[in-house]
Amino acid sequence: MNSAMYEAAAGVQVFGYVVILVVGLACVGGLIWAFRLGFKVRRREPAPPRPDEQPRMPPSGPVGETREMREPDEVPRAADDGERLTPYQLGNVGTKRADDQRRSRWSPGSSGSFGGGGGGRT
């Protein structure tokens, strides 16, 4: 009687090993399939640019940087209270070039930023 229980337990144990083996083989097969699919997709993509196709600096040299002071642009008002403004009436930039191009300076005695650790304005 004792041997019958051992044989039943061994049968269930072998079944568990077979299930683990089948699942493992399915995972390996899926990884191999995914690798081959990625390889095929990579072969269809264009090749990386050659050194002579890389971007070059223009003959006139580097493009200059423009620095200017900006100020908020006013939102246009609708002519009638019931009328709505559409996006093309609002414009695409929320700022405009400031009339005064002088750079603003810090107030004396200010810390320079919120939480900057300075004494603040006294």
- How much is the radius of gyration in Å? 36 Å
- Helix and strand composition category: mainly alpha
Spatial ordering of strands, largest sheet? 1-2
The strand count comes to 2
The helix-strand sequence is: HEHE
Task: Please mark out the parts with pLDDT under 50 across 5 or more consecutive residues, or reply none.
Answer: none
User: Main β-sheet: number of strands, strand sense, barrel status?
Assistant: 2 strands, antiparallel
Give the helix level as a range of percent. Answer: 25-40%
What average pLDDT do the residues reach? 80
Task: Work out the helix count.
Answer: 2
Morphology: elongated
How would you describe this structure in keywords?
single chain, 122 residues, mainly alpha, two-stranded antiparallel ribbon, 2 helices, 2 strands, 39% helix
